[in-house]
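Table S2 (continued). Query chain:
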Amino acid sequence: MYPVLHNNDIAHIQPVSPGDIEPGAVVFYVIDQRPMIHRVVRQRDDNNRPHFLICADATGKGHWVAAEHIFGKVVAIERNGQTLSLQGWRGQMWGWRFSRLWRGASAVKRTLMTQYGQ
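Corresponding output:
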């Protein structure tokens, strides 16, 4: 989850309900018995079940995850003895920027794929 999380950082995770997950939030989830932490970019409902498009900040690769696989939201990061909050306006602005950048990159990618194939 670099650049937000670094090796040896400690993520503080708080339980979250699907209705409280918004684009830009960093969430903890488990897929195929693999725990992961990534950023939520979008939400959609499939048959009244919420799904979230989750993306890695470093690679920009994303995939849809059902709400039942999400166990919590990262609310703070402990690094070198200091706690960095992802709550409040600074944490929200950081998340909002990444979700906007990801959406913009996706739009450019779709346009290029439409024009040039692949």
